[in-house]
Structures
1.
Amino acid sequence: MKIQHERLKRLTSDIFAAAGCNQQEADRIGHYLTEANLVGHDSHGVIRISYYIEWLRAGKVLPNQTLQIVFENDAIAVVDGQYGFGQSIGEQATKLGIDKCAQHGVAVIALRNTGHLGRIGDWPALAAAAGKLSVHFVNTSGAGILVAPFGGINRRLSANPMAAGVPVKRGAPMILDMSCCTIAEGKLKVAFNKGVDVPEGCIIDSKGEPTTDPKVFYGTPPGAILSIAGHKGYGLGIITEILAGALSGGGASNPKNANRLANGMLSIYLDPKFFQDDQTFAAEVDRFIEWVKSSEKAQPGGEILMPGEIEEKTKARRLRDGIELDDNTWKAITDTCHSLKVSVEKV
């Protein structure tokens, strides 16, 4: 089925308000989950609603939390998310980084103990809208252990996404949003709900054999996700664990913390006007984009895209045509609505 995004956003907000979030927080969760669907990252969109509500009921994520400052100086802040919703805590941490960067040209924010941060590309997009470059490293300290190390078959690392953003004067910002592993676990959830396979080379079963069946990944014993580009992605994942987990104080991947999903994020913000004239920087970014896109295309009628352009194209299409949800995802949402006495009739 297809749903117009504003209606889906309002329904999502209503669900979290009914579950105990204040209206501002419920609206932020509704905005970011729906935005993930709009840009084509269904794995981090409204498919997460039922999981978030389960965690809220179990006390694994807490409503209406604000950042706790652990340490702060002009350019650095170590902050604790108090296990609040990542869509609220992530925005608070990003805005803190933007403010510090605007004053001093650079800022580093180490965030620990926050609920699921959702689509990590949201945070460099928010910084780019304020004219700042940024890079973000994210790990999960416990419940999100999903990825086998290079040369191994057992889950030892989290998916370890990273994202970066660059403001672009003559268009949408460049947004790189990727994981150190071959496929986000949320995409496995989407495939599982749809009853379809995932691409080859993404997951292995419990014996280390390749598989494309997401049911095998969620089986007993479970399978594991592979790193991108073999040892290179594995190395990047290890560094991400250290930066987002060990350095933030939230901890790197650790089975002792498996009772709840908690993200850590290390974010670095840069203001180009502290490095050179910001118009010179903007012009160089534009020139570079044109140079890259001027390459002869590999296929007739093909395109050369900058990071984030696919998401922009998907967003334009889904704003026009609506967001498509599979039957299992919609059922999970409506079941959650009924449990909270939230009406779905308007949708």
Note: The domain at 65-181+230-276 is CATH 3.30.1370.60 (Ribosomal Protein S8; Chain: A, domain 1).
2.
Amino acid sequence: MFLHNKKMMYTVRVDQPNPRFAKMLLEQFGGPNGELGAALRYFGQGWAESDAKRRDLLLNIATEELSHLEMVGQMLTMLLKGSPGAMVDQVEGGYLGDLLDQKHDSYTEMSLNSSQTVLGGPGPRFTDSMGNSFTTDWVDTIGNPTADLRSDIAAEARAKIVYERLIKQSDDAGARDTLTFLMQREVAHQKMFESALSAIQDNFPPGNIVLDDFAHEFFHTSSDETAAGNGTSSSPGYKLLSSQKLWEFRPMAAEPHGGDPEMPPANPEVASQSGKKAHSKK
């Protein structure tokens, strides 16, 4: 059961109407990285989660995402106040005709930059900033906790970046303040999902099938130097992975046999290496 508490988590402020920025903000209302998609993603995962602690966490975050959706919707309404979308509902016939005839230049520009809001009146519509309708195809859940939590972390990271870009596009102090709050909550959710993932023992790789051999190979495929121990060991990518000391990799050159497991490794010197984790990263 949901009870609507009319007091928002944070005071929503907008100092001036701005239909152009409202169109950008639609990205976080009905876009692929927006609040609606986040709420649906975490509700779906939470309802299917058998672990009581993870279920509680997911449903709490999902409910907060609905509150964020309400905040973004309130911002959109404030940004559209006095815009052509709102005025079309207030003025009959002549105004819209003049608008379409381009007799009101400034309003024409505003309406073109907020085309979706003109169709929906003064209220926000469930689209992204380009007018693409929201679709559940954007809700990426696979039904495995470790895979889904990693996807959730990435989703919160993307949302955080979108809020960053929106903040940079606005010179409205009130809007920036509200967006900054929402951006910080994305970071908080990333931390929560990271913690939930760390609480799962042996959380990598996702799934149940034990992997070996080729799960630890580094194939050097992006250089003309294909000789093992030559191009492979000098690969900047291989050096990057080795320097982190999180995992051990066997450096191998790509072979024309297509990775046939019956064929010997391209570099016999490293064939005896374990290729296992340097240490477990939970």
Note: Strands lie at 217-220, 250-253.
3.
Amino acid sequence: MKAKYVNPFTDFGFKKIFGEEASKPMLIDFLSSLLPESNIVDLTFKDKYQLGKNDEDRKAVYDIYCQNANGERIIVELQKAKQNYFKDRTIFYSSFPIQEQAEKGEWNFKLEAIFCIGILDFKFDEDKDNQEEVIHTVQLKDHHNRVFYDKLKFVYLEMPHFKKSENELVTRLDKWLYFIKNLEDFQQIPEIFKDDIFIQAFNKAELAKYSVEEREEYEHNLKIYRDYKNTIDTAFDEGILEGILKGKIEGKIEGKIEGKIEVAKSLKENGVSIEIIIKTTGLSKKEIEKL
């Protein structure tokens, strides 16, 4: 059956539902259900491109980076497939909103809280045998398991573990997780979503409302997502890289240089080593480093 709504795990779909000015009510509602302690009444989108102190420094590019009325920073990252050093990456990304709060001259080092949200379309390796835990909350704690610093929190949503059916949904967060996980499969709006915020979310996600250019962009984005996720998940699940080395990206890495560059960019952005990218695409190390 042809999809009526976007896949929210694509960059295009996620941005449409949560990352545009017109999407703020949905983003606020979702984050409020996940971070009730933050008391979010309004949000301001911040520049998602975080630069280092100079041209040689590493940069960070967030899916969504925003700030609430209290000055708290919130990063929302959609992670489509496993990658090497994923946790390291989230820690590194959290360092930018910390550093940007530094003030020139006299400063007492007071910081506003930072929340890093990761929506994961894969399972943590250490949770392969645990099929129930969806929400992982991580904070700095001391050896007595007491919170040492309450202004830095990481929340990971392990979406493959969310298996509730419609009649099992209890909380507002339950509804959002059910919405995100099943949106692409809906052909009509379920009764449980008949409120203004979710109606807006479904309207933003409806493919028929997009222009021809937007539909083309989405279809292109969807194909990249499926090809990339299938390849990377296969490689990690089997513990080998046969999926990549055999060029199992539906033939897209064979022939056109544009296709090779596209694949290389996706792999590089998700932490795949240059050696593997070279074997996957046939591009040179110099070409890949320039991307």
Note: Strands lie at 43-45, 49-50, 60-61, 64-68, 73-79, 114-120, 135-141, 147-158.
